[in-house]
Amino acid sequence: MKRFSGFNLIGEAFRSHQGWPEHWPDKAPKASYDAIIVGAGGHGLGAAYYLAKKYGITNVAVIEKGWLGGGNTGRNTTIIRSNYLYDESAHLYDHAVKLWDGLSQELNYNIMYSKRGVLMLAHNVHDVQSFKRHIHANRLNGVDNEWLTPEECKAYCPPLDISPRTRHPVLGGALQRRGGTARHDSVAWGYARAASALGVDIIQNCAVTGIRRGADGAIEGVETERGFIASRRVGVSAAGSTSLVMKMAGLDFPLESYPLQALVSEPVKPIFPCVVMSNTVHAYMSQSDKGELVIGAGTDQYTSYSQRGAFHIVEHTLAAICEIFPIFTRMRMLRTWGGIVDVTPDRSPILGKTPVKGLYVNCGWGTGGFKATPGAGDLLAYTIAHDEPHKINAPYNLDRFRNGRLIDEAAAAAVAH
Amino acid sequence: MLLIHCPYCDEARPEVEFVYGGEAHIARPVDPSTYSDEQWEEFLYIRNNPRGRHHERWRHTHGCGRFFNAVRDTVTDVFEATYKAGETRK
Fold it and tell me: Number of H helices and number of E strands within chain B?
């Protein structure tokens, strides 16, 4: 890996930038590895990177069915925040937010983490009470979150309409200033480049077709389109396809896969300074560095693997956006797309061991996995390296669906998060 | 938007008239007090979530208001069949 630096940049300028090597070489799979990660999204690549960097396991392969970062990593709205209600959630998501800080320097790759603040709007009395409860819970957990009056919301985000006659009146908002956005592709590419430099093999266009278990039930390796690859430790980080991979190992999971849509407008000059989320009317928005307004919708109501959703979901979201920000009513939309999100019954992820020895899982992030990318990668790597979950991800086990110790962010947030 | 054939109204109507009801043919416990934790987990949370043929429930909320079952392909989203509640699995 040739480091990005001012010195190297100037040096390359004299050579028409012909001396930059490829970010990561395309590798053919070896016969065996110490650990295999299934799924080369941000989470999977992050896990491979931290395995090599922090936990000393460098003989690692990341196997990807499609192309690197082409699933939900390349399809989300890049929002980062950690203002979750429950202690377990606050610890988990804040672990990720702490890792986002300084990630560009660590990976030597600009992931464009921008702490522009995430403002969650309250439109009714229930929202106000619920958000204030969140704020107090967050402060007890050392997570920043503060209450803004409607006027303060308007000052923080000028395009907002706070007049009392609007259909969705703004009664205030909860602001997490450390929240913001990052460049999603850069996150995947940065992890891939850094992991590859540490000896990790990234194998794309190689679907896993089976999981081989020995006589004692333990993992022996994975069958792929390019042959059998042996490994005693396999971490699955396959988002919407997790149910399918787990069935190969004989496990049924408490997951359902739904399409989640997002869209961007035509690019315009800087107009929108932060991230605004409105849970009540199911819309959230930010402006990318390219100038597009990045807008997220809710999930479609039915399960699907089609990576597209219905138009009426988009229409509903845009109707809400136009009500809250009348300035954008003439804006034209450029692209819409969908990703397949794996949703658990309590809307909290599953991150830890499985009943199969040597098989680890990171799934169930539902509609909000991007924000957790570094944290999920680190904790999956820790769990694989130690064969035990870290205390942060210990509550996110599979057993909770049997013993009832759910982490019910579904009731706490109830929508896309 | 999906176009869904309601077996009671015998008409194809737009998806916005319907509410999705999750996986179909999950039988309620006959004798709940005898259920073990594993059985509750299976009943409440474990879902098939297949890629391909999926048996699911829909409710024609803004029509006849009745629940019915459907078979839909989760890759193409095309409905193979819809049939009345109580009829055998297709």
Answer: 1, 6
Output the six-digit token pair for A87.
């202690």
Buried b (16+ CB within 10 A) or exposed e, B15-44: bebbebbebbeeeeeeeeeeeeeeeebbee
pLDDT digits (tens, 9 = 90+) for B18-75: 999 999 999 999 999 999 999 999 999 999 999 999 999 999 999 999 999 999 999 9
Token pair of A313 as six digits: 């979901």
A165 Cβ contact partners less than 8 Å away, ≥ 6 residues apart = none
- This prediction has a pTM of 0.95
Comparing CB atoms, the residue among A243, A306, A401 nearest residue B75 is A306
Give the closest-approach CA distance of A5 to chain B in angstroms.
Answer: 45
CA dihedral A234, A236, A242, A243 (to 10 degrees): 30
Cβ-nearest to B38 among A257, A306, A402: A402
Question: Is A310's CB within 8 Å of B20's CB?
Answer: no
The secondary structure of A332-353 as a DSSP string is PEEEEEEEEEEE-TTS--EEEE
Residue A114 in contact with residue A123, Cβ under 8 Å?
A: no
Query: What are chain B's domains?
Result: 3-29+42-84 (3.30.2270.10)
List chain B residues with CB under 8 Å of A297.
Answer: none
Among A301, A336, A342, A408, which would you mutate to test the B interface (most chain B Cβ atoms within 10 Å of its Cβ)?
Answer: A301
E-state strands within B17-64: 19-23, 53-59
Quick: pLDDT tens for A119-169: 999 999 999 999 999 999 999 999 999 999 999 999 999 999 999 888 899
